[in-house]
Amino acid sequence: MRNRWLSENRTQVSILFVLFVLLLLFIISSPRTFLSGDIYAAFMSTIPFSMIMALSLTLVVICGEMDLSFPSIMGFCGYVFTQVFHATRSVALALLVCVVVGLIAGYLNGLLVVKLRLPSLVVTIGTQFFWAGLTQVLCQGLGKTLVPTKESPLYYLLVGRVLGKIPAQIFWAVVVGFFLWLVLNRHRFGAHIYYTGDNEASARVMGVNVDRVKIIVFTQMGGFAAFAGVLASLEVLYFWPTLGQGYLLKTIAAVFLGGTPVEGGVGTIFGTFIGAIIIGILEAGIIAMGLSGFWTQLVYGLIIVISIAIHSVLRRRVA
Amino acid sequence: MAEPSEVLVKMVNIRKSFGHVEVLRGVDFEVGYNEIVGLLGDNGAGKSTLIKILTGVHQPDSGEIYWKGKKLVNYSVAKARELGIETVFQERALSEQHSLWRNIFMGREITNRWGFIDIRKQREEAERIIREYMGFTSSALSVDAIVGTMSGGEKQGVAIARALHFQADLIILDEPTTGLSLSETQKVLSFVEEIKKKGKSAIFITHNIYHVYPVADRIVILDRGRVVGEFMKAAISLEKLVEKLYLVARTGRLNDEGEVSQKTPTTPHGLESLMP
């Protein structure tokens, strides 16, 4: 029984191990930083944005697809949120409109992939430029303040500090993670995502509506990118026209770090959750260790390559 | 047995062309209740087109299909499944990175009304299904086994067990033994016998007379869009059947003892691959 659990969850156990080793390394090398609560509060305020998108992207990758457009959808939806808020002064309405726009943008990705039978990598390179370009055209490079959102209780619900310390967004990331885990592991739809990614032809023969699965998977990606955009904008109380930039590779890396292979068919929410934490603490850890910021990318590269190598070896042993 | 008709499925004078190529030239084909029919034929003989018409993938240009005596109209893939016609493709309808129990219920999960899967029930059912349909295999299969780690014969067995469990009346086995080792082939043949024991029918499509002969009740030979031979196994020995196949290969026709013979002689070709 225990062996079965271990063999079924070996990728998740191994990525958790990588996280602990890293934390231990950071604590040993800079105990003052890594034994105080402040740095963890900082992590909890910044990690959730890419974590939420990484969790959502996990479904896309398991499905055997890829989405490169979510950072641009995040940016565009941040713009929509800001505009609707300034027009109506309602955070709730702005949030609603923004998420709906995100869902529509994701739906369009899915529609293009399914109906035109195009590779999602190609489609989302296109839509990535489209949404980023549209944002730039519309806001002409100008940002906008979101300070007045502080009047709304929703602000505190989304990015406030629980007990004066813990950023609320980390709870949202956990809620999103739990919800997506539930869908993926306990719901019929999640099973269909796995079958679609594993072998599309088989899934089709067995009556899985593969096209519908793909469209929904892309749609939810758009919705969560929009939600992450709102959180990220509210956290800094300002909408930057460059919102979303810099999230692409870190988010994708979190998914791969978490043990979801690019070929799809398998993968876990928990793995991505840990993967996103690793990506999120690396930069601070490297600098706290006394290495210059120049080292960050190099260490990123090393950790990612080592982790996916571990996953690949583990998977081969299972198969 | 009081059945509404004497045969399960009956295809009458089926014709089908793709462009100028006449693939099926008036084929009559039937499968009885609890009967295993071996369908032999070379590539291009029309086997797969005939099966695709039977499973609703293609529409015939002319001809009729009767299911339990009732003529089928507006026939489709969905309709075929509804009727209880299941096709077992070689390794094509499985999700290899997932467990046996998930594969058994693939696309037909046991869920509550909100669509959440009842994992415990599915595993228990899967356990019961492999005990019932695959219990005779020597290896003790676990329902948690990843399908990709199973042997070719076992995979075929999972697909057949799944079809039987979901009450298929007619199971179409598309080249189930191609590429399998001798012992794996034996396993698949045992699964076919299991279909017979459960009172269901099957069409066994193959190139290999030695694989289909032991399990078939009747053997139909298709050549270039026509049925050129039809034999009840009870009436012919394997040696005699092989002899007949040589005859078909040499002369393109069969002309003695009441076998279906061709209206027009054809030059012998293609059937060599049916030869041992």
UniProtKB/TrEMBL annotation, chain B:
<feature type="region of interest" description="Disordered">
    <location>
        <begin position="257"/>
        <end position="276"/>
    </location>
</feature>
<feature type="domain" description="ABC transporter">
    <location>
        <begin position="9"/>
        <end position="249"/>
    </location>
</feature>
<dbReference type="InterPro" id="IPR003439">
    <property type="entry name" value="ABC_transporter-like_ATP-bd"/>
</dbReference>
<keyword id="KW-0067">ATP-binding</keyword>
<protein>
    <submittedName>
        <fullName>Sugar ABC transporter ATP-binding protein</fullName>
    </submittedName>
</protein>
<dbReference type="GO" id="GO:0016887">
    <property type="term" value="F:ATP hydrolysis activity"/>
</dbReference>
<keyword id="KW-0547">Nucleotide-binding</keyword>
<dbReference type="InterPro" id="IPR003593">
    <property type="entry name" value="AAA+_ATPase"/>
</dbReference>
<dbReference type="InterPro" id="IPR027417">
    <property type="entry name" value="P-loop_NTPase"/>
</dbReference>
<dbReference type="InterPro" id="IPR050107">
    <property type="entry name" value="ABC_carbohydrate_import_ATPase"/>
</dbReference>
<dbReference type="GO" id="GO:0005524">
    <property type="term" value="F:ATP binding"/>
</dbReference>
<dbReference type="Pfam" id="PF00005">
    <property type="entry name" value="ABC_tran"/>
</dbReference>
